[in-house]
Specification:
Rossmann fold, binds glutamic acid, alpha/beta
């Protein structure tokens, strides 16, 4: 997630970079117009989980273990802000399942963060790490701060205070945070530094760090790159050519902007983009590199030259081969899914599609490549970063990107073969595979009978 501004793994702006604070509005509703979810993220992920466990005929007592979290921590974060008053925020860390390895998942800063949402996102990480076969469990964290309104100094206070309150449940062999919405490499540097004050220098305690602080080459671009790796693998069977793909990106944060730049690099044409301030379109193409530079300089999306400014919800009507939701959860829902005019939805965000929208899209023959597969590139390169930190050895960027591609291709092949064999959509097949792997690890450990 590189740097339009502050932060974010899959946010509306952000990047893993060290850029200036992002001043734009933070709500995804403001961002991309259409009403968000008819369901909470937690209801969405449970719905998909229930479909897969029913198909797997998983015993209810085992499903009950997998539906609940191992540990849920909620802490108080009082911060004195620029107005001279102390504001009390809430921080959460949910460790969902650790059967396959240490807990792993990002930390987001967003006013809408609550325990329910963090719990849902932690669950997704459990399946995601299992689907791509990296040896981690699933976790997620968050603080309910209006990140866009805070200065860098205030964000640093929040990050350090949060780490002070949760460090006892973290560590390279316990639980390893990473960037997510509105957090970036700078946030990870503060977290690592605070952890180091208590435990000694421990770079493997967080991933997504700056290159100067033992971060990995390729980590910032990894989620966007992994999306495109998966698309390249999926395209031929759908009669699509990556080098001949028109695509739309909803949310031009780290994930959206990297995915756009990488797909453009191999010949794709970006025909529509939205961010928190509005949307633009150009049938002849929007230069993703120039747009990234424009936004990184702090200029508004609507001022970009040579494009038409449109209403955020009109983005959905643009004819294209690939639509990439890369903003917040529930952006594709019952109220708007029938408007999409694409062949493939590549889920860059976590939980962007509600069950009702998923059904509408599937009925219309649109292939939905689910979050737990499509956006797993970030955690895959987090795994590489963790490995490099444990070995105190740095890989070159080509090695990182090459290994990432291999893992994403294999994961896509495994999920699509399963989908074909079982006659189910990719999401159901991905959940089936992920759940099976977690159940197997839990059984062999002796957690479940
Ligand atoms: N926040 C990212 C995700 O949702 C990355 C997590 C990680 O690298 O641990 O997948």
């Amino acid at each position: 997630m590189a740097d339009d501004a502050t932060v974010t793994e899959e946010g509306l702006h952000g990047d893993d970079g060290l850029g200036p604070p992002d001043k734009s509005p933070r709500s995804a509703n403001e961002a991309t117009g259409p009403a968000r979810a008819e369901l909470s993220n937690y209801a969405i992920v449970n719905h998909y989980f229930d479909i897969a466990t029913e198909r797997l005929e998983l015993r209810e007592d085992i499903a009950a273990v997998l539906r609940s979290s191992y540990r849920e921590v909620q802490v108080q974060i009082p911060i004195r802000l620029g107005d001279g008053r102390t504001h009390v925020f809430s921080g959460f860390r949910v460790q969902h399942n650790g059967a396959r390895g240490p807990y792993k998942g990002g930390i987001r800063f967003h006013p809408e963060v609550d325990l329910d949402e963090v719990r849902a996102l932690a669950t997704l990480m459990t399946w995601k790490t299992a689907i791509v076969g990296v040896p981690f469990g699933g976790a997620k964290g968050g603080v309910n701060i209006p990140a866009g309104d805070l200065s860098q100094a205030e964000l640093q206070k929040v990050a350090r205070s949060f780490m002070d309150k949760i460090e006892k449940v973290l560590g390279p062999n316990r639980d390893i945070p990473a960037p997510d919405v509105n957090t970036n490499a700078q946030t990870m540097a503060w977290l690592m530094d605070e952890y180091g004050k208590l435990h000694g220098h421990t770079p493997a305690c967080v991933t997504g760090k700056p290159i100067a602080l033992e971060g990995s080459y390729g980590r910032e671009a990894a989620t966007g790159r992994g999306l495109i790796d998966v698309y390249r693998e999926a395209a031929p069977a759908l009669g699509l050519k990556p080098e001949d793909t028109r695509f739309v990106v909803q949310g031009f944060g780290n994930v959206g902007s990297w995915a756009a730049r990488i797909l453009q690099d191999i010949g794709g044409t970006l025909v529509g983009v939205s961010d928190a301030t509005g949307a633009i379109r150009a049938d002849s193409g929007i230069d993703a590199d120039a747009l990234h530079a424009h936004l990184a300089a702090g200029d508004p999306l609507g001022d970009f030259a040579g494009v038409d400014a449109i209403d955020a919800d009109e983005l959905l009507d643009i004819e294209c081969e690939v639509f990439i939701p890369a903003a917040l959860g529930g952006m594709l829902n019952q109220g708007n899914a029938d408007r999409l005019r694409c062949r493939v939805v590549l889920e860059g965000a976590n939980s962007p599609t509600t069950p009702a929208a998923d059904e509408i899209l599937t009925d219309r023959g649109v292939v939905v490549v689910p979050d737990v597969l499509a956006n797993a590139g970030g955690v895959v390169v987090s795994y590489f970063e963790w490995v490099q930190n444990l070995q105190h050895f740095r890989w070159e960027e080509d090695a990182v990107n090459g290994q990432l591609r291999k893992i994403m291709r294999t994961a896509y092949r495994e999920v699509s073969s399963r989908a074909e064999a079982d006659g189910v959509p990719l999401r159901v097949a991905a959940y089936e595979l992920g759940i099976e792997r977690v159940v197997e690890a839990s059984r062999t450990r002796g957690y479940i009978a």
